[in-house]
Amino acid sequence: MLQSFFSLLNGEQSERIVWTADITYWIAGRQQAGKADPRWNTEEGYLQLHGELGIMPYYYYEKFWAAEPRYEDGIIVNESKDGGRITRRFSTPAGELREESVHSPLSCSTGITKHFVESERDLDVLLEIVRHRRLVPANLDDWPDRRRLWQRYDGLPCIGLPRSPLPAWMVEWAGVQNGSYFLADCPEKCAELFRLMEEQEEPIIEAVCDLAPPLVHFPDNLSSDCMTRLYDDHLAGVHQRRIERLHAAGVKCAVHLDGTVKGLLPKLIDSGFDAIEALTPKPGGDLDPEEIRELAAGRSVILWGGVPGVMFAPPYTWRQMEAYVRRLIGCWAGRPFILGVADQVPPDGDIGFCRKLAELILSLT
After folding, report:
1. Residue 345 buriedness (CB in 10 A; 0-12 / 13-18 / 19+)
2. What's the order of all strands across the beta sheet hosting 95-104?
3. Which pLDDT value is given to residue 311?
4. Which residues contact 302 (CB under 8 A, 6 or more apart)?
5. Cβ distance 110 to 102 under 8 Å?
6. Which residues of 118-156 are buried (b: 16+ CB within 10 A; e: fewer)?
7. Within the chain, which residues score under 70 in pLDDT?
8. How far is CA 216 from CA 21, 58, 74, 270, 274, in A?
9. How far is CA 282 from the centre of its chain?
10. What is the CATH number of domain 2-69+134-364?
11. Exposure pattern of 323-343 as b/e (b: 16+ CB <10 Å)?
12. What local confidence, expressed as pLDDT, does residue 50 receive?
């Protein structure tokens, strides 16, 4: 599948259907239940599991991020845990920011219950933190060696850039609701924050261009329902500037759109992405596979995803999953696409579906 993956990135016809799946959430569920195989904790054991399931290894978060933040003296970052509650603090001469999140054993997930930025005063503190922060390259020095390891398992280790400023603001600092209000109420301060964030990406973009991997990911966790009307003013330019630099170095670019699709898919295509990943159709998303294809008609962008993660779990059956994937492949045939789980196999999902899908894909090739 790896050779077909590269063929697609190069705009060529692939010999076979590429099948990817992010199984880290499912593994986390097995670990929480005390049923995980210890070898999955090693990178090679993780790769072996992909081989057993018949999926091309790509997703891996232990060494995913291409950047790490460094803060000047006077800014203290602290994290504490109390049962399932996690508190993160930034203590600075300008004030303190605090975030709280809670782990849910039922869903094996963690949700933020208090964001760092909830007032204009908090925004002022964040500006001071970012002014005294820099980003340094991470997880790139050993990437060539890791790539050779992954090639033995027919895979490619992913590289994640820093989140673009708008998604970073929404995901990491303020949340969608607070973040949207501040964009309206404090536009100049938000613009300065986004300018600083983009400026700090420069050494990361330069390092990735020097490395020149076949593909990098924009892990922006986009969803059309909350970012479509903000995209042109706050994100399109950043994406286009990044893509221009990376393309000049021979690096292809994928962006993570794992929410609703309709509003953002055309805009991301226009920005120049080579692939749009984790596309989630109904019943998990807002569009049918046919509608997604129509939005991308006449464009060479790779549609990546299409297999709803919700269908791995009850009440869905293998018969329903098989029928859905046959329909999806028939719909997207004739244009560039990578079959992938959208967005992840859930903890209560039937991981055996991955192997069955691999066998189904082989029978259709």
Report:
1. buried
2. 76-82, 85-92, 95-104, 109-114
3. 98
4. 8, 9, 254, 274, 275, 276, 336, 337, 338
5. yes
6. beeebbebbbbbbebeebebebbeebeeeeeebeebbbb
7. none
8. 17, 11, 34, 18, 10
9. 19
10. 3.20.20.210
11. ebbeebbebbeeebbbbbbbb
12. 98
Give whole-number Cα distances, 335 to 14, 301, 331, in Å. Answer: 10, 9, 9
**Interatomic CA distance for residues 258 and 288, integer angstroms:** 15
Show the tokens assigned to 230: 């903000």
Q: Please state at what angle helix 224-234 crosses helix 175-185, rounded to 10 degrees.
A: 30
Nearest to 103 by CA among 113, 117, 93, 94: 113
pLDDT at 365: 79
Cβ-contact 302, 9 below 8 angstroms: yes
Helix axes 318-332, 352-364, angle to 10 degrees: 40
Cα–Cα distance, 212 to 235 (Å, whole number): 24
What the block records as the tokens of 205 is: 């973009």
In terms of phi and psi (left: phi > 0; alpha: psi -120 to 50; beta: otherwise), the region of 231 is: alpha
3-state secondary structure the chain: CHHHHHHHHCCCCCCCCCEECCCHHHHHHHHHCCCCCHHHHCHHHHHHHHHHHCCCCCCCCCCCECEEEEECCCCEEEEEEECCEEEEEEEECCEEEEEEEEEECCCCEEEEEECCCCCHHHHHHHHHHHHCEEEEECCCCCHHHHHHHHHCCCCCCCCECCCCHHHHHHHHHHHHHHHHHHHHHCHHHHHHHHHHHHHHCHHHHHHHHHHCCCEEEEEEEECHHHHHHHHHHHCHHHHHHHHHHHHHCCCEEEEEECCCCCCCHHHHHHHCCCEEEEECCCCCCCCCHHHHHHHCCCCCCEEEEEEEHHHHCCCCCHHHHHHHHHHHHHHHCCCCEEEEEECCCCCCCCCHHHHHHHHHHHHHC
- For the chain, first and last CA: distance in Å? 12
**Domain locations along the chain:** 2-69+134-364, 73-131
CA gap 217, 243 in Å, rounded = 11
Residue 279 burial by CB count (10 A; 0-12/13-18/19+): exposed, middle or buried?
buried
